[in-house]
Amino acid sequence: MLSLSCYVFLPLSVLALLASVAVFVMFFSGIIKYKASWTFQPAYIFAAGLFVVAQFFFLLPVFLSDPELGAFESTVIAFYNTLRSFAIDMEIYDVLELLSGHKLLQAYAAFYAIASPVITVGALLSLLKDYFASIRLKLNKMNEKVNVYVFSKLSLESLTLAQDIREKAIAEIYGGTDVADEPKWRIRRKLRKRILLVFCDVPKKEEDENFSLLEKAYDLDALTFKKDMCALRIFANIKLLKGKKTGDKKIWFFAIGENDNENVSNTLTLVNRLTKLIENRKEKVNYNNIPDVKFFVFTVSDESERLFDKAIQENIEGFFARENFDGLIIRVNETRSLVYNRLYDYGSEMFAPRSKDSSQKLLSKNHITVQKRVNAVVVGFGGYGSEMVKALPWYCHMNQESIQIDVFEKSKEAIDKVVYRCPLMFDNEFNGASTGTHFNYSIKIHEQVDVFSKEFAQQFKALKDVDYVLVALGTDEDNITAAMHIRMLCERMGVEPKIEAVVYDTKHAAALKDLSILKYNAQQDSVEQVHSYNIDFIGDIKSYYSLDNILKPQLHEEAKKAHLHYSSTKTQIEKSLFYTSDYHYRSSLGLAIRNKAREEMGFFSFLEKDKSAKAEVENTEQISEDVKKAKDEIEEARKKKLAQVEHLGWWLWMLAEGYEENPVRNDLAKQHKDMTAFENLDLVDIKKDYAVLGIDYEDEPIEETVTQKGDANV
Known about the structure:
Blueprint: H1 6-34, H2 42-64, H3 71-85, H4 92-98, H5 103-127, H6 129-142, E1 147-151, H7 156-174, H8 184-191, E2 195-199, H9 208-219, E3 223-224, E4 250-255, H10 260-280, E5 292-298, H11 302-315, E6 329-332, H12 334-350, E7 373-379, H13 383-396, E8 402-409, H14 412-421, E9 441-447, H15 454-461, E10 468-471, H16 476-493, E11 498-502, H17 506-512, E12 516-521, E13 526-532, E14 535-538, H18 541-544, H19 547-551, H20 553-565, H21 572-580, H22 582-600, H23 605-618, H24 625-656, E15 660-661, E16 671-672, H25 683-691, H26 706-709
Parallel strand pairs: 1-2, 1-4, 2-3, 4-5, 5-6, 7-8, 7-10, 8-9, 10-11, 11-14, 15-16
Antiparallel strand pairs: 12-13
Helix pairs in contact: 1-2, 2-3, 2-5, 10-11, 12-13, 12-22, 13-24, 20-22, 21-22, 23-24
């Protein structure tokens, strides 16, 4: 017969059970709503704890009703059976016997006996989630057909990049990205045979923002780990032995966290781990069969980039023997990449010479003596603004254009930071100097001027002529507002410059792309036409965090060719400098950008014409030797002019990097011996200025010393 305590504890048991069920329902509805992967959350622990209390309050009066047990023994046995129930080991028959004659309570006891193991299984699955994910990662990284992409952190940026990788894989499978008619389960199955996306350092998902990130990761069928990227032991099962055809497989790491130092540290750890593994099996390694391993390091710190130089030189010599080797560590500087990519893709349109009667009509582009003053305005002197200001002089100098750059910045601290990094660039010796160096650039900084003030409007109108404007104030809202206000000022001034504004949000950029207003005709009292703001919104997250934009394969190849142009021998060491030296890599990018613009604007066209004319002259006996000699001299003068202009362009790039002149080159101190007039260069270095442009230097070949071979101007 049940004891009277049943009337006290049984209601408490029911209440605790109802509370437990309510918490469970809320927990699982959250998982379903956000499609998040299973995880062992505090809500689950709290609900399971209430369930334990409910079961104990039920079993306690049951065992108290046994006349052979005292209060203490009943309490211990009730608690003991509560715990045993979660291991499918509860003395259910004893409980049912004590509840004989009470069918409803027996069913209640059976419920606990069944539900408890289910909760145990759920907890075990949660604890084993990372283990099962590790198994899937291990199987896929050994699979020669599955490319593995590892992201150091789950964030909006890494998800955007992962989505782009997934879309490219879909396009390869289906011949396009329009797969609306294909079942999702079939797409997922095919993708699992091609790619594996892995996110590390996954944040807790109690916050709404993290729920959204996990939902997107789930949609991508990605693996998520709470642990660090270096803890994955990703190289443990990579096939390295001869005969194993894994050379086409990709294992790419993206150190894409917000902390620069952490990105660098993680990358160096993984690079050292990989090279140590290869070193231990060196006699058996075939570098052409090693998977295509790449490390993409997102960092805006120049100092952190320098940490890679020595690490790469010491650890990956064997990789340069690979066929089609295109780098192990790819440094991604968000601000610099946006500016460099923009100049490479659209620079010749942004700064092409224009006639006075029309801002859209280009001048003749078939020679190198075009003189034009470019007037650029940069609003905001932070990351994007400062990079553009440093790039404009060496870019526009490619064809002897003079450029006036007006910078508007409210914060004096931001100005000081830029000047501190490249002081000579803003020094009067170079900035605005019209003699001596022949640099045709002038940078005027309008200090402590608020863009949203009357003072800015007055100073902007005083510029009179403006060809290009970049707005980079730090937030999308400020950039959009400022760009539209500047367009209004330009309309009043009667000028039509190209205006670009940095907008991070992809949806905002897309919505604003065709932004326009109606133009009203006061005389006819009617609307004549749609008048566009003609503002380019650049730098949105979807455009920037795409594989094509980060890799920039065409620019990368052109830069590689430019790097090799300076030497006729193209030795293994010289090739490796493009990948192992941050100086050579970045300067080669600058040279490739200038060369592309020269070609598009016609500054190499005279070479082809002169070659054709020279051939005709040589085939005509009637023409005197004096005429032939004169034509040769004209051709050589033009070549020399191009080489001189390129040397000054390189010099300006060095100033932007913070270098100064010194008799001995020292990259650590940012000093270089060739930061001098073209006429003062050694013959070896003069030849390099010809070579980087793809122009032959008409002279007897000379022997280069070992030090000269390693001292490139690119």
